[in-house]
Write a structure and sequence with these properties.
Layout lengths: L10 E4 L7 E4 L19 E3 L5 E3 L7 E5 H6 L16 E5 L7 E5 L12 E4 L2 E3 L7 H4 L19 E7 L2 H4 L10 E6 L10 E12 L24 E2 L2 E2 L5 E3 L9 E3 L17 E2 L16 E2 L14 E13 L3 E13 L6 E14 L4 E15 L11 H7 L7 H11 L9 H4 L3 H4 L8 H7 L2 E17 L4 E20 L8 E23 L4 E22 L1 E4 L10 E3 L5 E20 L3 E12 L8 E12 L9 E15 L11 E2 L9 E2 L3 E2 L7 E14 L4 E13 L2 E5 L8 E5 L2 E18 L2 E18 L6 E7 L3 E6 L6 E4 L11 E3 L23 E2 L6 E5 L4 E11 L2 E11 L2 E4 H6 L28 E7 L16 E6 L19 E3 L2 E12 L11 E16 L18 E2 L6 E11 L1
Parallel strand pairs: 8-11, 35-39, 45-51, 50-56
Antiparallel strand pairs: 1-2, 3-4, 5-10, 6-7, 8-9, 10-11, 12-19, 12-57, 13-14, 15-16, 17-18, 19-20, 20-21, 21-22, 22-23, 23-24, 24-25, 25-26, 26-29, 27-28, 29-30, 30-31, 31-32, 32-36, 33-34, 36-37, 37-40, 38-39, 40-41, 41-48, 42-43, 43-44, 44-47, 45-46, 48-49, 49-54, 50-53, 51-52, 54-55, 55-57
Length: about 1050
């Protein structure tokens, strides 16, 4: 029963989600009975900026929502990874490491050097998604990937995730909303049968996808070539300088042969040339094989056997309920993940509480709180670093090494018995022969050179909502996000690297104080006005300390600063504060449920900008027209046109206004202070993004087919850049406002109910997006901004006229017809070193000509991304599969750049097109096929690219590292690969036991199987997962020691009591 005060001649509107809205004229009646029918098109409610729920038809911008159950079913340590392929316009890339970061980019890169990650908001609480990996780690020079801060969110607690993509959708968040917003709504309490307890369990195992590891050659062993013993036979074996003659008994006569185990390469003697040699197993006195020749053969246990089966278990218990006056939900979750590398694991414990209570008819209280504890052990080393096993396995390796033998050697006494010991060839000193040369035993490295980390975090809010009258209500909210983090990194006493201990601590908090006056008023029977005005006060702080030992450790195994050999260098310290005062408002005028106009604005005052220029205003305007409300069109259930314009910003980093000296380690008792490398700027202003968006939403044939098209164009001006400055200024770089970057594109969301017959249904959903990015300008006189310089001579750049993330390096030289030019000297320049008037030939055959100066050879951005989900349901059985796609984009592989030169990969062995071993001399028919046109030279030695020459195929030398396809002579472009992939990202199969079959006391029972990253259906890059990276952030397009993809299969069980 209900009662409503109404005019005798008024009209009542009855609406409910999923049902047709009905308008009933009162006409003097004192009672009305209304039966509502299901709507062909649901009046969908979506969560928008500031946590405001709105009817989707009233909003004039693009949003997309992903159901929390689908995220929870696909177990991943970082829930953001499970969004991949499910949101049009969102590019989500993972580092491939245990608990590693996920790079989330929505509608392209908007800031050249600043933050491009979206803002994350949980139940109205803005949370930190900081990526605090070091600059060395992000550029591939080593370190650990500790993940994003937003990965703390427990997917078991997520109700849904809404992605606000454009500036109009996120403008109310002001200066940090230029990159979109990810809104996370957590589960709340509700009425239900039973006692309201739910229990869930998942066990997931993972195994590496061997197709994303190198294909190793199995014909040749350790060495770099014929540099060692004589080119004569030894005891009947033709060694040809590939191995070392050893005098074991000291009588001056060689009595054994040894592999050059101190070499980290596989350009040695062929395995079929000799049966036994002294190997790494012969050089370590602790081993029973000491000084005994061992079988000389390819490994039976190659590096793929080093990886272990990962196991992740997740157990969660929740209790929830509600009454007429309130609701509650409390949950605890324990997640434990054992990684694919030895001595690696993560544990995360989550506890969450959501409560609401109606204190009176007008005053309502709600609160959401989460506590998270993270602990990590043995994070994966990344990049070009001895702590990354894949730097060894992919770049510098001896394919005769058996991983099982390395494991047994380490477990004998936990010492560093390395395969890469100096050995007999590198040192006659017996005390040095068994010490590691370049690489540690990988098992020693994983167990002794390891990291630990922990993070304690509290996220919460308190909300009071008071209904003043039928038109106005006021909402007050306090939100909090704070965490403390500890990281410790160790290098063991026997390691190749200097023993050390590093300690990093970080404390962070952000508090927001919100006060909003909301209003909703029917101005007439057809005209409605609703909106809000309010204020947001934000205060945040970040304190970081980073210190390490100096010169080694005094006592092995004691990891503390007091155990440093030398006085530790002064710690790096940062103490930053930020204050932003925001004033905001929004008003939406709706006419007859088919026309909506929305105006909003936010005015911010920021402490990170100069006091006389620290305020900025961000306006937004949207309009939407539902034309199918005006006229019925057969088969066309719903049609909506939306248009919006908006501006948002990105203010300066903390402490970027005034130059300060940094204090260094005292010298001779005197304190040292130094100026910063980058000069700060007291005149900075915020970056500004101006966006225009047009969208079309359509639903057809009784809601069986839907199509949502979005076209957008956004330009970010006033970029904050660190531009190189004159050294006379005292700094190398200077922060300035300069530059512009544009993103424009199209997004498609589509769904179709393909089959709906009896108990069987089949529906499909498609997401597709194409973003075109262009760097429009930089500072006057500057046309290139280097984002990162990475090993191998590659840079990642923002170049005027190119898409953001241009990869630059040496390129092939082409003639005017587009043919690659081949040179006889294997390099880009012709030389006449002997003065005979003839350009010298490369002594090892031919190679491709390469440019003397770097050119654009690729770009990190894809041409398009997409995802296709098919869901099949038969009675209580459901199966779903997601295919995730990326077309285009590039990355440079340091792995093949070096690995092709060390003889690790199959490309460097086998036979050529003539049937001859590729490692044979060119004169004997060896070498690898090189196809191009022969160079024609000008008088000055430069190549004449206009001269016509006949295309031919010749052989390039492959006998050792000085070959035509690796770092010594190949152009960088040869190792820039297409990042295209099509992946079977997710598969799930679930069964819900019918209610009439449930045992007494059980309200629901679901069981299921899930698979993740099961197969790469198509890719264009060899020996790797094209998605693998190093870290999140702006520096992408570089693979160095990349980790293999991991296939996961899991079992889910959900019980409700």
């Amino acid at each position: 029963k209900y009662s409503i005060d109404s005019d005798a001649n008024g009209t009542l509107v009855f609406s409910f989600v999923g049902y047709k809205t009905q308008e009933i004229a009162v006409e003097g009646k004192t009672s009305l009975n209304v039966t509502m029918s299901e709507g062909i098109v649901m009046d969908e409610v979506v969560v928008t900026a500031l946590g405001i729920s709105r009817d989707k038809k009233s909003i004039g911008y693009s949003t997309q929502t992903v159901d929390g159950e689908s995220l929870a079913a696909q177990k991943d340590v970082n829930f953001m990874s499970t969004l991949s392929g499910q949101v049009a316009g969102a590019q989500i890339k993972n580092s491939g490491t245990m608990g590693g970061s996920a790079n989330v980019i929505i509608r392209g890169y908007t800031s050249i050097s600043g933050n491009n990650q979206p803002l994350f908001v949980v139940d109205g609480i803005p949370i930190s998604n900081d990526i605090t990996n070091t600059s060395n780690q992000q550029t591939g020079r080593g370190g650990f990937d500790y993940g994003n801060a937003a990965m703390d969110i427990n997917p078991q607690d997520i109700e849904n995730v809404s992605v606000l993509k454009g500036a109009a959708a996120s403008a109310l968040y002001g200066a940090r909303a230029a990159n979109g917003v990810v809104l996370i709504t957590t589960k709340k309490g509700s009425k239900k049968k039973g006692i309201g307890v739910s229990v869930s369990h998942n066990t997931t195992i993972g195994m590496i996808n061997k197709n994303t590891m190198p294909t190793y050659q199995n014909e040749y062993g350790a060495g770099y070539g014929q540099y060692y013993g004589p080119d004569t036979a030894f005891n009947g074996a033709i060694v040809n300088g590939y191995v070392e003659e050893i005098d074991l008994d000291g009588d001056g006569v060689a009595d054994a042969l040894a592999t050059p185990m101190g070499d980290d390469a596989s350009y040695g003697l062929a395995f079929d040339q000799i049966d036994n040699l002294l190997t790494w197993e012969s050089v370590h006195p602790e081993l029973p094989t000491y000084l005994q020749a061992q079988p000389y053969q390819a490994s039976a246990n190659d590096p793929t056997t080093f990886y272990e089966t990962s196991v992740m278990t997740t157990n969660s218990v929740a209790i929830d309920g509600s009454s007429d006056n309130g609701s509650y939900r409390f949950s605890v979750t324990d997640m434990f993940n054992k990684g694919i590398l030895p001595n690696s694991n993560l544990r995360r414990n989550n506890a969450s509480l959501n409560v609401s209570y109606d204190i009176s008819d007008k005053l309502k209280f709600s609160s959401s709180m989460q506590y998270v504890r993270n602990e990590g052990m043995g994070r994966f080393g990344t990049g070009y670093d001895n702590r990354n096993v894949n730097q060894c396995f992919r770049q510098w390796y001896d394919v005769s090494v058996d991983m099982q033998a390395q494991k047994e050697a380490y477990e004998l006494n936990n010492n560093n018995l390395s395969w890469n010991a100096y050995g007999f060839a590198y040192s006659s000193d017996p005390n040095k022969r068994d010490k590691p040369h370049y690489f540690d035993n990988p098992y020693y490295m994983r167990n002794q050179n390891f990291s630990t980390d922990s993070r304690d975090r509290f996220i919460g809010n308190v909300v009071l909502n008071y209904e003043i009258n039928d038109v106005f209500n006021v909402m007050g909210r306090i939100t909090n996000d704070n965490f403390s983090e500890l990281r410790e990194e160790r290098i063991g006493f026997q390691s190749v690297d200097v023993p050390s201990y590093r300690k990093y601590t970080k404390s962070y908090y952000e508090r927001n104080y919100d006060l909003f006056l909301n209003f909703d008023k029917d101005l007439s029977e057809k005209l409605n006005l609703f909106g809000m005005v309010g204020t947001n006060i934000r205060r945040s702080s970040e304190v970081v300390t980073d210190g390490s030992t100096n010169g080694g450790l005094v006592v092995p195994g004691v990891y503390s600063f007091s155990n440093s050999v030398n006085t530790p260098e002064a710690a790096s310290e940062f103490d930053g504060q930020r204050a932003v005062d925001g004033y905001l408002g929004r008003a939406t005028l709706g006419y007859d449920r088919f026309l909506y106009l929305d105006l909003s604005g936010r005015y911010d005052i920021s402490s990170t900008l100069p006091s006389d220029n620290n305020s900025f205003f961000y306006p937004a305007a949207t309009a939407s027209l539902i034309w199918t409300e005006l006229a019925e069109i057969s088969g066309w259930d719903y049609g909506k046109l939306r248009l919006n314009y908006a501006q948002v910003g990105n203010d300066a980093p903390m402490q970027s206004l005034q130059n300060v000296y940094s204090i260094g380690t005292p010298f001779a008792g005197t304190t040292i202070a130094s100026a910063p490398n980058t000069g700060l700027n007291s005149n900075l202003s915020p970056e500004n993004t101006t966006s225009l968006e047009l969208g079309l939403e359509n639903k057809f044939f009784n809601n069986k087919l839907g199509l949502d098209l979005t076209f957008y164009d956004a330009t970010t001006d006033n970029q904050i850049l660190a531009i190189r400055s004159s050294s006379a200024s005292g700094t190398y770089f200077q922060y300035v406002n300069a530059g512009s970057i544009n993103n424009r594109g199209i997004e498609i969301q589509a769904y179709a109910d393909i089959v709906k017959s009896g108990d069987f249904t089949w529906n499909a959903r498609l997401n597709w997006a194409r973003n075109i990015n262009e760097v429009k300008s930089l500072r006057d006189g500057v046309d290139n901004y280097v984002l990162a310089s990475v090993q191998g001579g590659i840079t990642v750049n923002a170049t005027v006229g190119e898409s953001y993330g241009a990869i630059k390096g040496t390129n092939y030289v082409y003639n005017d017809d587009g043919d690659k030019i081949v040179v006889p000297h294997g390099d880009y320049g012709a030389n006449d070193n002997d003065g005979d008037g003839v350009y010298d030939e490369f002594p090892y055959g031919v190679g491709y000509a390469k440019t003397a100066l770097p050119e654009v050879v690729g770009n990190i951005l894809p041409d398009w991304t997409g995802g296709l989900t098919n869901t099949f349901t038969y009675k209580n059985l459901t199966m779903s599969a997601l295919v995730d796609m990326q077309w285009g984009g590039s990355f440079f592989s340091l792995d093949t750049w070096y690995g092709y030169g060390t003889g690790v990969y199959d490309l460097t062995a086998g036979t050529n097109e003539d049937g001859n071993p590729v490692r044979d001399p060119i004169a004997d028919g060896g070498g690898i096929e090189i196809t191009g046109v022969t160079a024609v030279y000008n008088d000055d030695g430069s190549i004449n690219t206009s001269a016509s020459t006949q295309a031919n195929t010749v052989n390039g030398y492959m006998g050792h590292y000085n070959n035509a396809v690796a770092w010594r002579h190949a152009p960088n472009a040869m190792h820039v690969y297409d990042a295209t992939y099509i992946k079977l990202r997710q598969v799930s199969l679930s069964y819900s036991l019918p209610k009439d079959k449930l045992p007494k006391g059980i309200q629901g029972l679901d069981v299921g199987l899930m698979g993740r990253n099961l197969a790469i259906l198509f890719k264009k890059s060899p020996h790797t997962d094209p998605e693998a990276g190093l870290s999140a952030g702006n520096i992408q397009g570089n693979q160095s020691g990349a980790y293999p993809a991991v296939r996961q299969i899991g079992f889910n069980l959900n019980l409700k009591f």
